[in-house]
Each structure stands twice: as structure tokens, then as C-alpha cells.
């Protein structure tokens, strides 16, 4: 699988569990600062986000990018794991490469080993 295909898959999964989280709780999913987030920004800049969203969430919803930020536990990982299994290493990869310590803590302890992560945006799901 190409790197772009992995990032498309992970972003689509994030949107799927993020939409469920919002519908069920009213909370927005926290997007960690990582290559998946960079990919989201790239899709926005290249006007390619709508195609990805339509192919995974359908044509009745749009995803908006809301800038916000903090350092917190990610509030959607339990939902992700229930649907898709463990997080892909992409969620632990940034400009400096794979954060090996965080990834190893997560892979050895599961969600209990997941550190608080820096995040800089959230999705908003809007009906078309």
C-alpha cells in the first residue's frame, strides 16, 4: 500500500469515528499533530478533501476543518480500535519521523499506554 493510500485510509477512519463521536456525545475528535493531519491539510489546499469524504462518508456530509489546539488524551482511539484494530504508526509520525517512545508505549500497553498528544484541529461534520 502506498503512503498516500495509508494516509487516505487513516484520515477516512478518523472522520468515520469522529462523526460517530460527535453524533453520540457532541464532542469533536482531536486530530493529533502528525502526518495524517498534514495529509488532511494537503487535501484541503488541493481541493481534494470532498472526494475523499464522499467516498467514505457519502455525499450528504461535508467535513470542515476547525483550528483549535491543546495537549490531551485522544478522545476517539477507543472507537477506532473497536472498529479497525490498533492505530497505524502514521498516528505517531511527524516531521522528525516516528516517535518511537510513544509508539512503543502504545503497542506494549494499548490505549492505556497512549500518551497525551499535541493536537491542532478538529473536524466539523456538516450536512450538505
Describe it for me?
By secondary structure, the chain is an alpha+beta fold. It has one domain (3-127). It is built from five helices and five strands, in the order αβααβαββαβ. It has helices at 3-25, 35-45, 49-57, 77-84, 100-109; strands at residues 31-32, 61-72, 93-94, 97-98, 117-127. The strands form two sheets. It has a three-stranded antiparallel β-sheet. A hairpin with a 2-residue loop joins strand 3 and strand 4. The longest helix has 23 residues, at 3-25. The protein starts with a helix and ends with a strand. The mean pLDDT is 95.
Number of helices: 5
Tally of DSSP β-strands = 5
- The tally of domains stands at 1
Structural class: alpha+beta
Main pleated sheet:
3 strands, antiparallel
**Order of strands in the sheet with most strands:** 1-5-2
Low-pLDDT runs of 5+ residues are: none
Work out the strand percent: 15-25%
Mean pLDDT score = 95
The helical percent reads 40-55%
Shape: globular
From the alpha-carbon coordinates, what is the Rg to the nearest angstrom? 14 Å
User: SSE order in H/E notation?
Assistant: HEHHEHEEHE
| Cα distance spanning the termini | 32 Å
Compact description:
With 128 residues, the protein is of the alpha+beta class. It contains five helices and five strands, in the order H-E-H-H-E-H-E-E-H-E.
Amino acid at each position: 500500500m502506498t503512503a498516500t493510500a495509508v494516509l487516505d485510509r487513516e484520515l477516512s477512519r478518523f472522520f468515520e469515528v469522529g462523526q460517530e463521536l460527535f453524533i453520540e456525545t457532541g464532542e469533536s475528535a482531536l486530530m493529533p499533530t502528525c502526518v495524517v493531519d498534514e495529509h488532511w491539510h494537503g487535501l484541503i489546499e488541493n481541493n481534494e478533501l470532498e472526494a475523499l469524504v464522499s467516498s467514505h462518508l457519502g455525499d450528504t456530509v461535508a467535513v470542515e476543518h476547525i483550528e483549535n489546539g491543546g495537549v490531551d488524551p485522544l478522545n476517539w482511539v477507543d472507537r477506532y480500535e473497536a472498529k479497525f484494530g490498533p492505530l497505524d504508526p502514521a498516528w505517531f509520525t511527524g516531521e522528525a519521523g516516528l516517535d518511537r517512545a510513544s509508539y512503543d508505549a502504545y503497542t506494549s500497553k494499548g490505549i492505556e499506554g497512549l500518551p497525551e498528544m499535541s493536537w491542532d484541529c478538529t473536524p466539523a461534520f456538516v450536512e450538505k
